[in-house]
Design brief:
alpha+beta, 303 residues, 4 domains, elongated, Double Stranded RNA Binding Domain, three-stranded antiparallel sheet, two-stranded antiparallel sheet, 9 strands
Length: 303
């Protein structure tokens, strides 16, 4: 049921808006050269309900309305053109998202190529290894990617090739930076006898990094908004903190980095055996099993 003002000017505009909305929902490619009668012919047999700014209605109801009260066809055409432009913009955005979506996934499987044909051939070779969830909204799945690539326009092909190559360059650059960081922190940890294991490295731009790294007995996991050199310095600091955690041999007073004692040594310099002992620690209603370091010497060794 339409709720339209009885004011003549407002009512005339409302009828035009309703007509445009219903026409566009019935036929998005409606011929805008039509007149009132031609528009009414399109609408008159449509009984399905359509939501408009002024309530729910049908093509049949609108047809009767415009034949009885007339129609501002210029306003109708202006509105429909607006809807068409909005639809085209939405489709353009959808296609743009499709290109970016394809590039995001393919950059993990493809090498940099100079031509679109080389890209298609590379994708066909890699498609059996592509692991990605099917994207219902964009109609993308590993199985239909080769066919999808063939449907792109020339402009879209050029955009995909450019975007993908740029992402591959970034991927390779990130890989090299990850290798550099891993090598740096490993070498730094060796100065203290502390093992460092870089499990994951992600770069988002120049100063946002996601990492997962084990430094001795500590795990560093998260995102850091720092420069690459600042990230190196932060990990170096964590190595130093790990190196400060020491245990003392009760027999000779020798101080040993806890991680080294737990993982690298069997004996202290004085000959005391280094062993690990299990113990439990209760917090609230949960019991945690932990390990502690013990130094042992037999009476004969003391002599």
């Amino acid at each position: 049921m339409l709720e339209i003002s009885k004011n003549r000017i407002k009512r005339r505009k409302a009828i035009a808006i309703v007509t445009a909305q219903v026409l566009f929902s019935i036929d998005p490619d409606v011929d805008l050269r039509g007149d009132v009668k031609e528009f009414a012919m399109i609408l008159k047999d449509e009984k399905g309900l359509v939501w408009t700014f002024y309530g729910q209605t049908s093509g049949e109801e609108v047809a009767k309305l415009i034949l009885e009260e007339g129609l501002d066809t210029d306003e109708v055409k202006r509105r429909i053109l607006k809807y068409i432009n909005r639809r085209n913009l939405s489709e353009k955005k959808r296609r743009y998202a499709l290109i970016n979506h394809l590039a995001d996934y393919l950059c993990n499987y493809c090498s940099k190529t100079d031509t679109y044909k080389e890209l298609v051939d590379d994708v066909k070779r890699a498609v059996t290894t592509i692991q990605m969830p099917t994207d219902v909204q964009l109609s993308i799945s590993p199985e239909n990617i080769p066919d999808l690539l063939e449907t792109l326009t020339e402009d879209e092909k050029a955009r995909l090739l450019h975007t993908l190559n740029r992402k591959i360059d970034r991927r390779d650059s990130d890989f090299k930076r990850g290798e550099e960081l891993e090598k740096h922190i490993n070498n730094f940890g060796k100065n203290y006898g502390i093992d460092c294991d870089m499990v994951e490295f992600i770069s988002e731009g120049h100063d946002v990094f996601g990492i997962k790294v084990f430094i001795g007995n500590s795990e560093i996991f998260g995102w850091f908004n720092v420069t690459f050199n600042e990230l190196k310095e932060a990990l170096e600091k964590q190595v130093r903190l790990e190196a400060k955690d020491k245990v003392t041999c009760p027999f000779c007073g020798n101080k040993i980095i806890r991680y080294v004692a737990m993982n690298k040594l069997k004996k202290c310099d004085c000959g005391a055996r280094i062993e690990l002992a299990d113990y439990s620690e209760k917090k609230e209603n949960t019991t945690y099993m932990k390990k502690d370091i013990v130094f042992l010497k037999s009476p004969k060794e003391d002599d």
